[in-house]
Amino acid sequence: xxxxxxxxxxxxxxxxxxxxxxxxxxxxxxxxxxxxxxxxxxxxxxxxxxxxxxxxxxxxxxxxxxxxxxxxxxxxxxxxxxxxxxxxxxxxxxxxxxxxxxxxxxxxxxxxxxxxxxxxxxxxxxxxxxxxxxxxxxxxxxxxxxxxxxxxxxxxxxxxxxxxxxxxxxxxxxxxxxxxxxxxxxxx
Length: 188
Known about the structure:
It is a single chain. By secondary structure, the protein is an alpha+beta fold. Helix content is about 65%, strand content about 15%. The protein has 4 helices and 4 strands, in the order αααββββα. A hairpin with a 7-residue loop joins strand 1 and strand 2. The radius of gyration is 29 Å and the shape is rod-shaped. The relative contact order is 0.17.
């Protein structure tokens, strides 16, 4: 390998080292960018799930208290159609009875420790100062959506970094040829 490098011109060696450095730098940058994209998407999903939890908590509590089963089913169905929701589960606590569990989930959902989830107790206040615990609402994020978004972002990031690395290597090689190699040939 060393003999091959000695036979190559200084310009070619510089271009090769520039490409290698640029590719190494691009890989490091892409790795950091990938981690950043994952965290941003995960935090965005957590924020969306928190908002859904707040919205559905009050409407579900009211529908459960009023024994409006079609409204409860409609709300669960609506929440399950939201892309960031992988699974939604409603666990109704019965006084002295077995709890009733209703859930909906995306077709590609699988239990995950990477996707965020939100859990809250459903409490209804039928009169000022009173409260009745009706059940629990669990909303789990869709990890498959996080991976899809990450894959799309990483592909564009890698293409951009690769193009920039090759352009920089070409520019350094051209500048070296113009500023150094040309003058050395004249001197020789």
